[in-house]
Design a protein that fits this description.
By secondary structure, the protein is an alpha/beta fold. The protein has a domain at 2-33 and 144-286: 3-Layer(aba) Sandwich (Rossmann fold), CATH 3.40.50. Helix content is 38%, strand content 15%. The strands form 3 sheets. It has a 5-stranded parallel β-sheet with strand order 2-1-3-4-5. It has a 4-stranded parallel β-sheet with strand order 8-7-9-10, covered by helices on one side. Strand 3 (89-93), helix 5 and strand 4 (115-119) form a beta-alpha-beta unit. The protein starts with 5 loop residues before the first helix and ends with a strand.
Length: 310
Protein backbone atom coordinates (compact mmCIF):
# COMPACT_ATOMS: atom_id res chain seq x y z
CA UNK A 1 0.00 0.00 0.00
CA UNK A 2 0.95 3.65 -0.18
CA UNK A 3 2.66 3.75 3.23
CA UNK A 4 4.96 0.88 2.27
CA UNK A 5 6.57 2.93 -0.53
CA UNK A 6 6.97 -0.17 -2.76
CA UNK A 7 6.88 1.66 -6.09
CA UNK A 8 8.91 4.60 -4.80
CA UNK A 9 11.64 2.13 -3.80
CA UNK A 10 11.57 0.65 -7.31
CA UNK A 11 12.01 4.14 -8.75
CA UNK A 12 14.97 4.76 -6.44
CA UNK A 13 16.82 1.59 -7.42
CA UNK A 14 16.13 0.81 -11.10
CA UNK A 15 18.93 0.82 -13.66
CA UNK A 16 19.06 1.44 -17.39
CA UNK A 17 18.63 -2.34 -17.84
CA UNK A 18 15.28 -2.50 -16.00
CA UNK A 19 13.53 0.82 -16.61
CA UNK A 20 10.04 0.74 -15.03
CA UNK A 21 6.93 1.54 -17.05
CA UNK A 22 5.02 4.77 -16.58
CA UNK A 23 2.30 3.24 -14.39
CA UNK A 24 4.90 2.26 -11.79
CA UNK A 25 6.26 5.80 -11.95
CA UNK A 26 2.80 7.21 -11.20
CA UNK A 27 2.44 5.07 -8.07
CA UNK A 28 5.98 5.99 -6.99
CA UNK A 29 5.20 9.69 -7.30
CA UNK A 30 2.00 9.39 -5.27
CA UNK A 31 3.86 7.45 -2.56
CA UNK A 32 6.46 10.22 -2.47
CA UNK A 33 3.85 12.97 -2.16
CA UNK A 34 2.11 11.06 0.62
CA UNK A 35 5.19 11.43 2.82
CA UNK A 36 6.64 14.77 1.63
CA UNK A 37 4.98 18.17 1.82
CA UNK A 38 4.01 19.82 -1.47
CA UNK A 39 4.29 23.65 -1.50
CA UNK A 40 0.92 25.34 -1.97
CA UNK A 41 0.98 27.76 -4.88
CA UNK A 42 0.09 31.34 -3.98
CA UNK A 43 0.94 33.94 -6.62
CA UNK A 44 0.12 37.64 -6.18
CA UNK A 45 0.45 38.64 -9.85
CA UNK A 46 -2.78 39.91 -11.40
CA UNK A 47 -1.75 39.12 -14.99
CA UNK A 48 1.27 36.82 -15.03
CA UNK A 49 3.16 35.69 -18.08
CA UNK A 50 3.56 31.91 -17.62
CA UNK A 51 6.47 30.38 -19.52
CA UNK A 52 7.55 26.77 -20.05
CA UNK A 53 8.66 24.25 -22.66
CA UNK A 54 6.85 21.05 -23.60
CA UNK A 55 4.94 19.62 -20.64
CA UNK A 56 6.10 22.52 -18.46
CA UNK A 57 4.08 24.84 -20.71
CA UNK A 58 1.06 22.53 -20.40
CA UNK A 59 1.50 22.45 -16.61
CA UNK A 60 1.42 26.24 -16.56
CA UNK A 61 -1.79 26.29 -18.57
CA UNK A 62 -3.36 23.85 -16.10
CA UNK A 63 -2.23 25.69 -12.96
CA UNK A 64 -3.29 29.12 -14.26
CA UNK A 65 -6.30 28.08 -16.35
CA UNK A 66 -8.68 29.99 -14.07
CA UNK A 67 -6.70 33.26 -14.07
CA UNK A 68 -6.09 36.12 -16.49
CA UNK A 69 -2.67 34.70 -17.36
CA UNK A 70 -0.78 35.01 -20.62
CA UNK A 71 1.05 31.89 -21.80
CA UNK A 72 4.28 31.56 -23.77
CA UNK A 73 7.04 29.17 -24.72
CA UNK A 74 10.72 30.07 -24.90
CA UNK A 75 10.10 31.10 -28.52
CA UNK A 76 7.38 33.66 -27.82
CA UNK A 77 8.23 35.10 -24.38
CA UNK A 78 9.90 38.29 -25.62
CA UNK A 79 7.09 39.05 -28.06
CA UNK A 80 4.58 38.78 -25.21
CA UNK A 81 6.65 41.07 -22.98
CA UNK A 82 6.88 43.66 -25.76
CA UNK A 83 3.24 43.66 -26.81
CA UNK A 84 1.24 43.01 -23.61
CA UNK A 85 1.97 45.93 -21.31
CA UNK A 86 -0.12 44.93 -18.28
CA UNK A 87 1.89 41.78 -17.52
CA UNK A 88 2.94 42.36 -13.89
CA UNK A 89 5.12 39.31 -13.29
CA UNK A 90 6.55 36.21 -14.94
CA UNK A 91 6.27 32.60 -13.80
CA UNK A 92 8.86 30.22 -15.26
CA UNK A 93 8.09 26.51 -14.98
CA UNK A 94 11.13 24.26 -15.34
CA UNK A 95 11.71 20.92 -13.64
CA UNK A 96 15.49 21.29 -13.83
CA UNK A 97 15.69 25.07 -13.68
CA UNK A 98 18.22 24.79 -16.51
CA UNK A 99 18.22 24.64 -20.32
CA UNK A 100 16.14 27.64 -21.48
CA UNK A 101 15.02 28.75 -17.99
CA UNK A 102 18.04 30.95 -17.03
CA UNK A 103 18.05 32.53 -20.48
CA UNK A 104 14.37 33.42 -20.09
CA UNK A 105 14.88 34.77 -16.56
CA UNK A 106 17.72 37.05 -17.66
CA UNK A 107 15.61 38.26 -20.57
CA UNK A 108 12.68 39.07 -18.28
CA UNK A 109 14.91 41.18 -16.03
CA UNK A 110 15.57 43.47 -19.01
CA UNK A 111 11.88 44.30 -18.93
CA UNK A 112 11.97 44.98 -15.18
CA UNK A 113 9.42 42.30 -14.29
CA UNK A 114 9.39 40.15 -11.16
CA UNK A 115 10.20 36.48 -11.77
CA UNK A 116 8.85 33.42 -9.94
CA UNK A 117 10.31 29.97 -10.59
CA UNK A 118 8.53 26.62 -10.19
CA UNK A 119 11.16 23.89 -10.16
CA UNK A 120 12.21 20.58 -8.65
CA UNK A 121 15.85 21.57 -8.31
CA UNK A 122 16.77 23.61 -5.25
CA UNK A 123 20.19 24.28 -6.85
CA UNK A 124 18.72 25.42 -10.16
CA UNK A 125 20.92 27.70 -12.24
CA UNK A 126 17.94 30.02 -12.71
CA UNK A 127 17.65 30.60 -8.96
CA UNK A 128 20.05 33.56 -8.97
CA UNK A 129 17.87 35.46 -11.44
CA UNK A 130 14.48 35.11 -9.73
CA UNK A 131 12.61 36.96 -6.98
CA UNK A 132 10.65 33.96 -5.67
CA UNK A 133 11.07 30.19 -5.96
CA UNK A 134 8.82 27.20 -5.29
CA UNK A 135 10.74 23.90 -5.02
CA UNK A 136 8.58 20.80 -5.43
CA UNK A 137 9.63 17.27 -4.40
CA UNK A 138 10.54 14.77 -7.10
CA UNK A 139 11.52 11.14 -7.40
CA UNK A 140 14.26 9.54 -9.48
CA UNK A 141 12.84 8.89 -12.97
CA UNK A 142 13.87 8.06 -16.53
CA UNK A 143 14.57 11.19 -18.59
CA UNK A 144 11.36 12.64 -20.13
CA UNK A 145 8.96 10.75 -17.80
CA UNK A 146 8.51 13.96 -15.73
CA UNK A 147 5.71 12.44 -13.68
CA UNK A 148 6.52 13.52 -10.14
CA UNK A 149 7.89 16.85 -11.38
CA UNK A 150 4.74 18.26 -12.93
CA UNK A 151 2.20 16.24 -10.94
CA UNK A 152 3.59 17.79 -7.76
CA UNK A 153 3.16 21.29 -9.17
CA UNK A 154 -0.41 20.56 -10.21
CA UNK A 155 -1.22 19.18 -6.75
CA UNK A 156 0.27 22.38 -5.32
CA UNK A 157 -2.56 24.20 -7.09
CA UNK A 158 -5.47 21.75 -6.73
CA UNK A 159 -4.58 20.59 -3.17
CA UNK A 160 -5.83 17.07 -3.97
CA UNK A 161 -4.73 14.34 -1.58
CA UNK A 162 -2.19 11.92 -3.11
CA UNK A 163 -3.53 9.04 -0.99
CA UNK A 164 -7.03 9.42 -2.46
CA UNK A 165 -5.66 9.38 -6.01
CA UNK A 166 -3.50 6.35 -5.21
CA UNK A 167 -6.38 4.44 -3.62
CA UNK A 168 -8.76 5.14 -6.50
CA UNK A 169 -6.27 3.87 -9.09
CA UNK A 170 -5.25 0.89 -6.97
CA UNK A 171 -8.76 -0.14 -5.98
CA UNK A 172 -10.82 0.77 -9.06
CA UNK A 173 -8.59 0.93 -12.13
CA UNK A 174 -6.25 -1.98 -11.43
CA UNK A 175 -9.24 -4.30 -11.95
CA UNK A 176 -9.83 -3.19 -15.55
CA UNK A 177 -9.14 -5.71 -18.30
CA UNK A 178 -5.92 -4.36 -19.81
CA UNK A 179 -5.47 -7.40 -22.07
CA UNK A 180 -7.47 -5.60 -24.76
CA UNK A 181 -4.72 -2.98 -25.10
CA UNK A 182 -2.32 -5.36 -26.83
CA UNK A 183 -4.81 -5.97 -29.64
CA UNK A 184 -4.33 -2.44 -30.98
CA UNK A 185 -1.61 -0.12 -32.25
CA UNK A 186 -3.93 2.89 -32.60
CA UNK A 187 -5.56 4.65 -29.65
CA UNK A 188 -8.07 7.51 -29.43
CA UNK A 189 -8.19 9.04 -25.93
CA UNK A 190 -11.39 10.92 -25.08
CA UNK A 191 -11.54 13.37 -22.15
CA UNK A 192 -14.16 15.61 -20.61
CA UNK A 193 -14.25 19.13 -22.03
CA UNK A 194 -13.53 20.63 -18.61
CA UNK A 195 -10.05 19.04 -18.72
CA UNK A 196 -9.20 20.20 -22.23
CA UNK A 197 -5.85 21.79 -21.18
CA UNK A 198 -4.45 18.37 -20.21
CA UNK A 199 -4.92 17.05 -23.73
CA UNK A 200 -1.50 18.25 -24.88
CA UNK A 201 0.18 16.61 -21.88
CA UNK A 202 -1.12 13.19 -22.97
CA UNK A 203 -0.10 13.85 -26.57
CA UNK A 204 3.46 14.68 -25.54
CA UNK A 205 3.71 11.53 -23.42
CA UNK A 206 2.62 9.38 -26.36
CA UNK A 207 5.23 11.04 -28.58
CA UNK A 208 7.97 10.50 -25.99
CA UNK A 209 7.15 6.85 -25.38
CA UNK A 210 6.15 5.70 -28.87
CA UNK A 211 7.27 8.30 -31.41
CA UNK A 212 5.40 7.49 -34.64
CA UNK A 213 5.28 3.74 -33.92
CA UNK A 214 1.85 4.07 -32.32
CA UNK A 215 -0.98 6.17 -33.76
CA UNK A 216 -2.84 8.31 -31.28
CA UNK A 217 -5.40 11.10 -31.02
CA UNK A 218 -6.56 12.88 -27.88
CA UNK A 219 -9.71 14.99 -28.04
CA UNK A 220 -12.55 16.16 -25.81
CA UNK A 221 -15.92 14.45 -25.96
CA UNK A 222 -17.40 17.58 -27.55
CA UNK A 223 -14.77 17.73 -30.26
CA UNK A 224 -15.48 14.06 -31.01
CA UNK A 225 -18.80 15.20 -32.49
CA UNK A 226 -16.89 16.69 -35.42
CA UNK A 227 -15.35 14.77 -38.31
CA UNK A 228 -12.78 12.82 -36.30
CA UNK A 229 -13.82 9.35 -37.43
CA UNK A 230 -14.83 9.79 -41.07
CA UNK A 231 -12.25 7.17 -42.02
CA UNK A 232 -12.76 4.04 -39.89
CA UNK A 233 -9.77 2.23 -38.47
CA UNK A 234 -8.94 -0.66 -36.15
CA UNK A 235 -8.39 1.55 -33.11
CA UNK A 236 -9.30 1.52 -29.43
CA UNK A 237 -11.32 4.40 -28.02
CA UNK A 238 -10.25 5.07 -24.42
CA UNK A 239 -12.67 7.41 -22.64
CA UNK A 240 -11.88 9.01 -19.28
CA UNK A 241 -14.97 9.57 -17.15
CA UNK A 242 -17.20 10.24 -20.17
CA UNK A 243 -19.44 7.65 -21.79
CA UNK A 244 -18.77 7.46 -25.51
CA UNK A 245 -22.23 7.54 -27.11
CA UNK A 246 -20.93 8.80 -30.45
CA UNK A 247 -19.30 5.71 -31.89
CA UNK A 248 -21.63 3.20 -30.29
CA UNK A 249 -19.27 0.25 -30.69
CA UNK A 250 -18.66 -1.55 -27.41
CA UNK A 251 -16.08 -3.89 -28.91
CA UNK A 252 -13.46 -1.17 -29.34
CA UNK A 253 -14.44 1.02 -26.38
CA UNK A 254 -12.40 1.06 -23.17
CA UNK A 255 -14.05 3.08 -20.39
CA UNK A 256 -11.86 4.48 -17.59
CA UNK A 257 -13.94 5.77 -14.65
CA UNK A 258 -13.16 8.98 -12.80
CA UNK A 259 -14.46 9.94 -9.34
CA UNK A 260 -17.07 12.69 -9.28
CA UNK A 261 -14.71 15.14 -7.55
CA UNK A 262 -11.80 14.54 -9.94
CA UNK A 263 -9.46 17.47 -10.51
CA UNK A 264 -6.41 17.88 -12.72
CA UNK A 265 -4.06 15.90 -10.47
CA UNK A 266 -6.36 12.88 -10.51
CA UNK A 267 -6.83 13.12 -14.28
CA UNK A 268 -3.11 13.45 -14.97
CA UNK A 269 -2.24 10.50 -12.72
CA UNK A 270 -4.94 8.30 -14.24
CA UNK A 271 -4.03 9.33 -17.79
CA UNK A 272 -0.36 8.52 -17.23
CA UNK A 273 -1.31 5.25 -15.52
CA UNK A 274 -3.34 4.15 -18.55
CA UNK A 275 -0.61 5.26 -20.97
CA UNK A 276 1.77 3.18 -18.85
CA UNK A 277 -0.48 0.17 -19.35
CA UNK A 278 -0.39 0.81 -23.11
CA UNK A 279 3.41 1.00 -22.82
CA UNK A 280 3.39 -2.44 -21.16
CA UNK A 281 1.35 -3.87 -24.03
CA UNK A 282 3.74 -2.65 -26.76
CA UNK A 283 7.33 -3.19 -27.81
CA UNK A 284 9.81 -1.32 -25.58
CA UNK A 285 10.96 1.29 -28.10
CA UNK A 286 11.48 3.97 -25.46
CA UNK A 287 13.72 1.81 -23.28
CA UNK A 288 15.79 0.68 -26.26
CA UNK A 289 16.41 4.22 -27.51
CA UNK A 290 16.66 6.34 -24.35
CA UNK A 291 20.45 6.24 -23.98
CA UNK A 292 21.06 7.16 -27.63
CA UNK A 293 18.53 9.98 -27.38
CA UNK A 294 20.12 11.53 -24.29
CA UNK A 295 23.49 11.46 -26.06
CA UNK A 296 21.98 13.48 -28.91
CA UNK A 297 20.19 15.80 -26.46
CA UNK A 298 23.48 16.52 -24.68
CA UNK A 299 24.95 17.82 -27.92
CA UNK A 300 21.84 19.87 -28.60
CA UNK A 301 21.49 21.52 -25.17
CA UNK A 302 25.20 21.33 -24.22
CA UNK A 303 24.28 20.10 -20.74
CA UNK A 304 24.80 16.92 -18.72
CA UNK A 305 21.55 15.15 -19.57
CA UNK A 306 21.50 11.55 -18.39
CA UNK A 307 19.07 8.69 -19.12
CA UNK A 308 18.15 8.57 -15.44
CA UNK A 309 17.32 11.85 -13.68
CA UNK A 310 18.41 11.58 -10.06
Amino acid sequence: MIAEQINYKIMQSFTIENIPDLDTCVFGALELFHKEKIPQINISYQRPLVVGSGNAEVTGRIIFHDTDAVFASESSVEEKLKTIKNIDGVVIISASGGKHAPIIAKLVKKYKKSVTLFTNNEKAETKKYVDEIFVFPKQREPYTYNTSTYLGMILGKTKERPKEIYNFINEKLSKLNFDILRDYDKYFLIISSEFEPIKRMFQIKFIELFGRRIARDIETIEYMKHATTVVPSHELFVSFGVEDTILGNKENNFYVPLPKNADYGMVMAIGYYIIGKIQKSQHHWFKENLVAYTERANKLFKTGIKPIVE
